[in-house]
Amino acid sequence: MSVVFLHGWLDNAGSFKALMEQIHQLNPKLHLLAVDHFGHGLSSHKSRDNYYPFHDYIADMYQLLDELSPNRLMLVGHSLGALIASCYSAAFPEQVEALVQIEGTGPLTESPSNSLQRLRNG
């Protein structure tokens, strides 16, 4: 199994370094991979006349994982990474064994007085 870590908006793959080191100590046979999305961390930025549509994150992940991992995937995403992981899981369920979302709920659209009940109800 490959465990793929996807960071949040304005973050980078380095945020998972300590966690990956701990997981590697517990199970060195796991294939661990942390990804810098375009325009984040050590990855390239797109040209000034280009932009970052959300669906490109899914296509980028597919191209990368198709090359790097023949294994089933456990996707671990934080914030934007959780949304990407969720959409990737829906698009390619045959590749995904497990999905872990950290703060992956997106912005609240309820009034503050209704937010707690909305979160409890799902």
Explain this structure.
- The protein contains four helices and four strands.
- It is an alpha/beta fold and 122 residues long.
- The chain has a single domain (2-121), classed as 3-Layer(aba) Sandwich (Rossmann fold), CATH 3.40.50.1820.
- A four-stranded parallel beta sheet has the order 2-1-3-4, with helices on both faces.
- Helix 3 (80-91) links the parallel strand 3 (73-78) and strand 4.
- The two termini are 30 Å apart.
- The model has no long low-confidence stretch (mean pLDDT 85).
- It holds the Pfam family Abhydrolase_1.
- It comes from Vibrio parahaemolyticus.
- Residues 3-107 form the AB hydrolase-1 domain.
Provide the descriptors you would attach to this structure in a database record:
Rossmann fold; about 20% strand; 4 helices; globular; alpha/beta
Domain module tally? 1
Q: Give the proportion of residues in helices.
A: 25-40%
| Average of pLDDT | 85
* Total DSSP E strands: 4
Q: Order of strands side by side in the largest beta sheet?
A: 2-1-3-4
Secondary-structure element string: EHEHEHEH
- How is the CATH topology named? Rossmann fold
Q: Could you tell me the radius of gyration in angstroms? A: 16 Å
> What structural class should be given to the helix and strand makeup?
alpha/beta
Q: Please write the CATH class name.
A: Alpha Beta
What is the first-to-last residue Cα distance?
30 Å
Q: What are the low-pLDDT stretches, counting only 5+ consecutive residues below 50?
A: none
Q: What percentage of the residues does DSSP assign to strands (E)?
A: 15-25%
The rough form would be described as: globular
CATH architecture field: 3-Layer(aba) Sandwich
What's the name of the CATH homologous superfamily? Alpha/Beta hydrolase fold, catalytic domain
Number of helices: 4
